[in-house]
Amino acid sequence: MTQDEFEKLRARLEEQLRRDIEMLYEAHRVKLRAFETIRQARAELDGSERPPAPSAEQRPPALAPAARPAPAPAPAVKTRGEAWSVLDGVVDALAELPAEFDKYDLVRALGQKPSKATLARALDTLCKGKVLAVSKPATGRTPARFRKLRGIAAPEPRGAEEAEPEAGDGSRNATEPV
Q1: Residue 131 CB coordination number (10 Å)
Q2: Which residues contact 12 (CB under 8 A, 6 or more apart)?
Q3: Radius of gyration of the chain from its Cα atoms, rounded to whole angstroms
Q4: Confidence (pLDDT) at 150
Q5: Can you give the pLDDT at residue 174?
Q6: Percent of the chain scoring above 90 in pLDDT
Q7: Residue 35 backbone phi and psi in degrees, to 5
Q8: How far apart are the C-alpha atoms of 111 and 86, rounded to whole Å?
Q9: Which residue of 32, 66, 89, 128 is most buried, as measured by CB atoms within 10 A?
Q10: Edge-to-edge strand ranges of the sheet holding 145-148
Q11: E strands in the chain
């Protein structure tokens, strides 16, 4: 085996190790979320408002910094996407998501990470359009959980909510006080 072949094989093995560690880390996060859901459900059944936070010895140890997967390199230049592309992507991704999901599940289904404000605006639009509902509000570092509403039609066509009523038709603007 030549030195060049050895280095290529070693690089492939290092990349495989990184992917394996990333997969294990993601499985660990899913287990923690499941555990948290069960803990909260038990607390609700017992009648207590909120379960106590786990103590330091109950918390699983964090992965060592070297073991954490390296973040993907960010693109050098951010370009603005087409209008409504994130909202359209979210609507398309809803078919792949479980009945209840959080923003991290949605970002995985989208395959991209839009800005926080854009993603929040898209989710808010879908909640106002009765496509989604907040099943559990965000608390601290725990993201909000959303659920899909069944039997609800897709949101109105884009731009419909922005249409201004004509001046003399007697209707009010939605932003005017009642």
Answers
A1: 19
A2: none
A3: 23
A4: 66
A5: 45
A6: 31
A7: -60, -45
A8: 11
A9: 89
A10: 100-102, 145-148, 132-136
A11: 100-102, 132-136, 145-148
